Amino acid sequence: MTTSGHREYTNGEVTIVWKSDVCKHSTNCWKSLPAVFNPQKRPWVDMQGAATLAIIEQVEKCPSGALSYYMNSERQKP
Ligand code: SF4
Question: Is any ligand 1 atom within 6 A of the Cβ of residue 67?
């Protein structure tokens, strides 16, 4: 599930990949969408905190590229 410094979080529909070694701690994600991204909590990403589309929109705003995502349905093809 994880490789060095990479963590994945899913809500069953979309999976977020977070690369801790790339994150610049710009705070964008948790200031804009604190219901999902909360560095005070463990795990710090709560995939139940917002709808899939809202999560994807926030991931796309990550300035460092530390956050990315894939749709689970795309990874389940044979
Ligand atoms: S927006 Fe990206 S760079 Fe900024 S804290 Fe979140 S994951 Fe890290």
Answer: yes
Query: Is the Cβ–Cβ distance between 51 and 61 less than 8 Å?
Result: no
Distance 37 CA to ligand 1 centre (A): 9
Is the shortest distance between the CB of 64 and ligand 1 below 6 Å?
Answer: yes
- Does the pLDDT of residue 1 top 70, yes or no? no
pLDDT in tens, 31-48: 999 999 999 999 999 999
pTM score = 0.91
d(CA 29, CA 15) in angstroms, rounded, equals 16
Structure tokens at 49: 């905190």
- Any atom of ligand 1 within 6 Å of the Cβ of 16: no
| Closest-lying ligand 1 atom to the alpha carbon of residue 37 | 6
What is the span of the domain harbouring residue 63? 2-74
CATH code of 14's domain: 3.30.70.20
